[in-house]
Amino acid sequence: MDFADMWAIFGPGISGAVFGAGWWFWIDAVVCSSVKVSFIHYLPGIFASLAALMFNCVKREDIDYSPYEEGEWRLKLWLFIAYVVSFVSLAGSVGLLVQDSLVSTGPSVWTGTAGILQCVFVLISGLIYWTAHSE
C-alpha cells in the first residue's frame, strides 16, 4: 500500500477526530464558564462547520485548474463562498476573543480561545477530509 491508499483509509477517521476535538474545546469552555455564554458566541463554530460541509460537497477531480477554461465556474464560485464563510467564522471568533478579553462581565478569555481553537480544528478537519475522500 502506498501513501495515497493509506490516506484514503485513515484520512476520514483523522478528520473526524480533529472535528471532535474542535467541538470538545468549545463544549469544555461553555460548561466551565462561570457566566451564561450568549448564542452569538456559538455562531463562528456553527459557520465553520457549515463551511467545512460546503467545501466537502466538491471533489477535487471535478475542478479544472486551467485558467483558460470556463468550465466549472459554479464549482469554483461555491468553493470561494465556502472559503469566505470559513475565514469570516475565524475572524468572528478572533473578534469575540478580543471582546471577551476587554469586557469583564462577559465570558472568560478561555471561551474566546476555545472558539478560535474550535474554528481552526473544524476547518482543518474539513480540509483533511476533502483531501482524503478526493483521492
Automatic annotation (TrEMBL):
- Which GO cellular component terms, listed alphabetically, does the Swiss-Prot or TrEMBL entry include? membrane
- List the transmembrane segments: 7-27, 39-57, 77-98, 110-132
- Location, primary (coarse class): membrane
The lineage's top-level taxon is Eukaryota
Compartment(s) of residence: Membrane
The family line of this record is: Belongs to the UPF0220 family.
The protein's name: Transmembrane protein 50A
